[in-house]
Write a structure and sequence with these properties.
Largest sheet: 2 strands, parallel
Oligomer: single chain
Radius of gyration: 12 Å
Shape: globular
């Protein structure tokens, strides 16, 4: 991912979806996958909270449901 491409995507996402400081983003994507880039940087850019799932947690639907409920996740991405 090129820096300007990442910045462009983050600015577009913020304009389109307006993440707020009281939102919580679930970071569940392995860092080697391109979607993880916005999961890491979008909350940091906007002051929102980031909740990091346990390793391999993205493969366990029961775990995902529990962490979404426990932390009241407002934003996440599924492929």
């Amino acid at each position: 991912n090129a820096h300007r491409g990442v910045v462009n995507r983050l600015l577009w996402m913020q304009e389109a979806y307006t993440l707020q400081a009281d939102d919580r983003v679930l970071q569940k994507t392995p860092f080697s996958f391109d979607v993880s880039v916005w999961e890491f940087f979008w909350p940091l850019l906007t002051g929102a909270q980031m909740v990091i799932a346990k390793p391999e947690g993205h493969k366990d639907p029961d775990y995902l449901r529990a962490i979404i409920d426990q932390y009241q996740i407002t934003t996440l991405h599924f492929v």
